[in-house]
Design brief:
Blueprint lengths: L1 H7 L9 E6 L5 H11 L3 E6 L5 H11 L4 E4 L11 H4 L8 E7 L5 H18 L11 E4 L15 H11 L4 E7 L13 H18 L4
Parallel strand pairs: 1-2, 4-6
Antiparallel strand pairs: 3-5, 4-5
Length: 212
């Protein structure tokens, strides 16, 4: 994935960095990431001694960003970095290029779970996104100098959009291609992940009632 980014990003940006967040991986991820940082000056890595969770990893990457724009890009190979060219023009008129997966390439039960989750987030928080958890998005880094993200689990995207909207940041949705997963195993549909997500939703809803 990093080799792909290093090949494509110079065609899009004159100045960029790649921040790898290694969330307590037990395989050779950490070793490979360290080797990449030694080989490429534009690559940095953040190591977690244990698994901090999706939200904990994402927000640490956000706050570590040093450039004008920050792009969240998963390492599972299900998105095409070349489509960043579609997102970039939106930065002239909005603060966030929010994406949705076109023809999502996931099992049926995950699509059902996502549909229910999107509707719940819309109902509870008033965020009418087509695909609120899409992991490929482009944002202005200044947002993270204004908002403080607290979530450590799957609710991180909902919290981000909710707090960004409250601070007056704008967004526009755009579709991106979703590719089949060739490597790794997703844990998003596991019972404990779903249970924790429900708990986080209810806790966050209770907390933000005073915002309204």
């Amino acid at each position: 994935m990093v080799d792909t980014l290093l090949a494509e990003l110079p065609k899009i940006f004159g100045d960029f960095e790649i921040v790898i967040v290694n969330d307590g991986s037990k395989d050779n991820t950490g070793e490979i990431a360290d080797r990449l940082t030694r080989k490429h000056d534009v690559v940095r890595v953040i190591h977690h001694p244990t698994n901090f969770g999706y939200g904990g990893s994402v927000k640490e990457g956000y706050y570590a960003a040093k450039k004008e724009l920050v792009c969240l890009f998963p390492g599972d190979g299900q998105f095409d970095i070349r489509e960043l060219r579609k997102l970039l023009p939106l930065m002239d008129r909005v603060d966030i290029a929010a994406t949705y997966r076109i023809n999502r390439r996931d099992p049926f039960h995950r699509k059902v779970n996502q549909f229910i989750y999107n509707k719940a987030i819309w109902l509870l928080f008033g965020i009418p996104f087509r695909d609120i958890d899409c992991g490929f998005k482009l944002m202005k880094t200044k947002i993270f100098r204004v908002i403080e993200l607290e979530t450590v689990g799957a609710l991180i995207d909902a919290e981000f959009y909710f707090k960004s909207k409250r601070k007056g940041f704008s967004y526009e949705e755009i579709g991106v291609t979703h590719l089949p997963r060739d490597f790794g195993v997703s844990t998003g549909a596991k019972f404990y992940v779903v249970f924790h997500a429900v708990f986080e939703i209810l806790r966050f809803w209770w907390k933000i009632r005073s915002y309204r």
